[in-house]
Amino acid sequence: MNFTLKTFDQLTNTELYNILQERTNVFIVEQNCPYPEVDGKDGQSYHLYKEENGEIVAYLRILPPGVSYAELSIGRVLVKKEYRGQGLAHSLMAQALQFISDELNETTVKIQAQDYLRNFYSSFGFEAISEVYLDDGIPHVDMLLQKS
User: What is the pTM of this model?
Assistant: First the structure.
């Protein structure tokens, strides 16, 4: 699967608009969860996504250490509703982790995962490091991946 990886400054206005639109559709509208989606962290992040027919169908952002946590982080992982169940999320995460390891030389990744996705992230080696807690009314768990 072909994914695109760009820094914030490399994104075109249209790409950024489409990314923010799909993040809003999934995390605010679909999950019925009003929160500040545009959080000031995009400018420091890498953006990995797959586009089809001008639409973002899968996306995540990679946040360098010190932006969300002391460790590097992955966030805003999504697959557009119509494209779920095709393995896109797995391919997306695998590519992100490969980039983090090969290009950024990072060995530790921290995430804030929705609890229902715990097994998905565990399949990549992430381990829960917190109890389940509510964030914006949705059960979450902090998870850590450490590679030597």
Answer: 0.94
